[in-house]
Design brief:
Elements lengths: L10 H10 L1 H6 L1 H7 L4 H9 L18 H14 L1 H20 L2 H7 L11 E14 L2 E11 L7 E8 L5 E7 L4 E3 L13 E11 L3 E3 L16 H31 L10 H33 L6 H29 L8 H12 L7 H11 L7 E3 L2 E3 L6
Parallel strand pairs: 1-3
Antiparallel strand pairs: 1-2, 2-6, 3-4, 4-7, 5-6, 8-9
């Protein structure tokens, strides 16, 4: 089953449901910023539309979208509201990979009836592992983690841990009630993602509710989950960046239509027209290339083969390119939108959300540098371990 790449027939219907919710998402966006989380109406609507279920394994009752279907799903939500897109992207990815990589005991506990809506929702972070002391049947876990996007909606926690004695990196799933939440998400952008910190000390987690962080062998679901945790994250972030970039350009188009023909309108200049066309070309090119990268990956996964180092590199590079292309577009929008970019409204909110989203570690400069090391031939026998390009050692 894990060799089969599933493309869900539910894809068009879910896109339609997302678009039907567009007005709700946008009308609730300001209230969500004030709350520091999605409004109850927005959260219920998106969960009811099947957005998280899209990332869950089919054999557990999920829709199990293909990578390109997930990219477009996250792109569509983010177009309507960047914060809602980020929150659902995080919940979808973390919940979906937990369902895929944990075995039967944990699946029965956390995902008893996915099709009926009875399943865990997971939020958390994995780049700074906590400590896991082996004990009979599991681990005593202690640690402090950051940036748990979507925590207000979560029932359970996803966190990286490092096993004492072996150094092995694992990922756990534990009830949210077993950690202490730290309400410290005070930022300019993505305010409603509730990306707070949390910590715990010596909490018992059964081994059945952990998996190897580097695994590419799913216990549930098909070939998409053989991409691994980091690449699954890249799918969602790529869709988010493309959706935000598209919305900002469309908002600038509305500003231009409103200002055109007025006295000294900058949007009537040849320079504006040239820069708008350039921005369109950049965004469309970034999207086309990202989809091309994932089309190639889908063919490899469907053939039952592992992704190569070249493919892993291009996944990271396509995400970096989409993110910083969106940021570049944001600067163009800010330059030409005038006061529409500084007053409360969609442009101001999307620009702030974009500025925060670009700081995610997956689009950081070190990842880009590592992509360059591989592509330039500087480390031809290296391989990726999470976000690090690890050189080949003699004897390996």
């Amino acid at each position: 089953m894990t060799a089969r790449l599933h493309a869900s027939e539910e894809f068009p219907a879910i896109l339609d449901r997302i678009d039907a919710l567009g007005e709700t998402l946008e009308s609730n966006a300001d209230a969500a910023e004030e709350l520091g989380r999605l409004t109850d109406d927005t959260a219920r609507a998106l969960l009811g539309a099947g957005v998280v279920r899209a990332g869950l394994p089919e054999n557990l009752g999920g829709h199990e979208f293909s990578p390109r279907q997930l990219i477009e799903t996250n792109e569509r939500i983010s177009y309507h509201d960047a914060t809602a897109g980020w929150t659902m992207m995080a919940l979808q990815m973390v919940t979906g990979t937990t369902a895929a990589y944990l075995g039967a005991v944990a699946a029965a506990d956390l995902f008893p009836d996915v099709a009926g809506g009875d399943h865990a929702l997971l939020a958390g972070h994995g780049t700074r592992p906590g400590r896991a002391v082996p004990v009979d049947g599991g681990y005593l876990v202690s640690g402090s983690w950051q940036f748990a996007s979507g925590m207000s909606l979560a029932t359970h926690i996803h966190s990286a841990i490092q096993v004492e004695g072996t150094g092995e990196l694992r990922v756990l799933a534990m009830p949210k009630s077993q950690v202490t939440l730290v309400d410290n998400w005070d930022v300019l952008g993505l305010r409603a993602t509730n990306s707070i910190d949390y910590h715990c000390a010596e909490v018992y987690v059964p081994a059945t509710h952990t998996y190897r962080a580097a695994t590419k062998d799913p216990a549930n679901g098909g070939a998409i989950y053989r991409a691994g945790l980091v690449n699954m994250s890249a799918i969602g972030h790529t869709g988010w960046a493309l959706g935000v970039g598209r919305r900002l350009l469309d908002e600038l188009k509305l500003v231009a239509a409103a200002k055109s023909g007025t006295y000294n309108a900058a949007v009537d200049t040849a320079q504006f027209h040239a820069e708008y066309a350039t921005a369109e070309a950049k965004l469309r090119s970034a999207r086309a290339w990202a989809m091309d990268v994932w089309r190639d990956n889908e063919e490899t996964l469907a053939a039952g083969e592992p992704l190569s180092t070249e493919q892993d590199t291009l996944i990271r590079l396509a995400l970096n390119h989409a993110t910083w292309t969106a940021q570049d577009i944001g600067q163009t929008v800010h330059r030409w939108a005038g006061t529409a970019a500084i007053r409360r409204g969609p442009i101001d909110r999307f620009l702030r959300d974009l500025g925060t989203g670009t700081q995610h570690i997956t689009s950081g400069p070190v990842v880009l540098q590592n992509c360059g090391k591989w592509l330039s031939g500087a480390q031809p026998r290296a391989h990726w371990e999470f976000l690090d390009l690890v050189p080949h050692l003699p004897g390996q």
